[in-house]
Amino acid sequence: MKLVTFRQPGDAPHEARAGVLLPFGVVDLQAAAPLAFEDTENERIDMLRVLTGDDLGISLEGAAEIVNAVLEQIGGSVDVVNDESDPNAVDLAGSISIGGLDLLLPRSEAKLLAPLPRPRSVRDFFAFEQHVAAARKQRGQNVPAAWYRAPVFYFSNHQAILGPEDLVPLPRTEQLDYELEVACVIGREGRNIDPADAYEYIAGFTIMNDWSARDVQAEEMSVGLGPAKGKDFATSLGPYIVTLDELEDYTTDDGDRWRLDMIARVNGREYSRGNLIDMHYTWAEIIAHASRDVTLYPGDVLGSGTVGGGCILELTPEAVGGWLEPDDVVELEVTGLGVLKNRIVYSR
After folding, report:
1. Number of alpha carbons in the 13 Å side-chain half-sphere of residue 76
2. Are 279 and 259 in contact (CB under 8 A)?
3. Does residue 32 sit in the same domain as residue 83?
4. pLDDT of 144-175, one tens digit each?
């Protein structure tokens, strides 16, 4: 499944709800839940509730049941039109309603937000050796031996999450940068998780842009702490959370890694290209380390860290024409995970 959080035109921010993106529309899980489960009328269903699950049946498995119930109700065909935003896709000709409720919406009528607008936490790892080596080389340093002993991470601001097409207010920096990453979303509570069991705790993957104010970051890290304020202002997630069954064609033979091309473009020009398979640490190792002596909860987010060559700091601003500026549009594309697009604007 492709899990989304969305609003319809006229909805207030607190009315955002969870859905499932189909090739021709968006299933509104909140409106459609009574098709599959009793006592769910007027129940608010957001993404955190889907990930956490409850005794009414609202869960990842329950979301799949709701989608199947909607498809059974509408039968084998729907009226579609060409999608104006994507020439290779189609959109519903109009909403499909049952009992006065819009269960299936055209994609054009669903404003996609960050799939998990308020994660419980965000840990960002440092899992690509090429990125670590390049960043350290710029400071005349080698990769520290400790990096090879355990995956390291920092906590980012889980209250500063942006979604697809959201505007990124320019922070107080002269060196704004993007970071091309993939994030794992936790879907099951666990502590001291065995690496052999770790993939049972993944709800899915999404694209992550760890925006960075490099001058601020360098200053604070010279003191021996951070990154903190240099990352504090924004992290983009989206456009959806993709469950692992949708990515089976990209899994390595041992099942530990995924071959997903990762591309970054600025104003349509390709800046970065890498692959998720190049992570030094597996997701199983990352989850096991993150859960050591602490409980992970559904809705926690674990970032991969920047893929090799996946930011201006590594490429150097001289090579690409400078740091990011207002009106620049940054697109991160990952095989199977879609495109995460944001435009930078002056802060208001």
Report:
1. 0
2. no
3. yes
4. 999 999 999 999 999 999 999 999 999 999 99
Q: Tell me: the pLDDT tens digits for 125-142?
A: 999 999 988 888 877 888
Q: Which residues contact 190 (CB under 8 A, 6 or more apart)?
A: 201, 291, 295, 296
Short-list 113, 67, 108, CA closest to 91: 108
Dist CA 142 CA 127 (whole Å): 16
Find the angle CA(129)-CA(330)-CA(143) to the nearest 5 degrees.
Answer: 15
Closest CA to 218 of 228, 209, 208: 228
Tokens coding 158: 């889980």
Contact 28, 3 (CB under 8 A): no
Q: How far apart are CA 258 and CA 206, in angstroms?
A: 13
The amino acid at 154: Y
pLDDT of 119: 98
Domain count, the chain: 2
Summarised one tens digit per residue, pLDDT across range 4-51 is 999 988 888 788 999 999 998 999 999 999 999 999 998 999 999 999
Nearest to 237 by CA among 309, 199, 181: 181
Residues 142 and 78 placed together within one structural domain of the fold: no
Average pLDDT estimate for 275-296: 98
**128 shares its domain with 240:** yes
So what's the pLDDT on residue 337?
98
Domain membership of residue 66 as a residue range: 2-112
Q: How many other C-beta atoms are found inside a 10 Å radius of the C-beta of residue 100?
A: 6
Q: What is the pLDDT of residue 348?
A: 67
Distance of alpha carbon 193 from alpha carbon 120, whole angstroms:
18
Residues 185 and 303 in one domain: yes
Give yes or no for a contact between 205 and 185, defined as CB atoms under 8 angstroms apart.
yes
Write down the pLDDT at residue 137: 82
Residue 133 and residue 157 in one domain: yes
Alpha-carbon distance 184 to 308, whole Å?
18
**pTM: predicted TM-score of the whole model, two decimal places:** 0.96
| Residue 106 and residue 125 in one domain | no
Name the amino acid, one letter, at 68.
N
Last residue of a domain, one of 50, 83, 112: 112
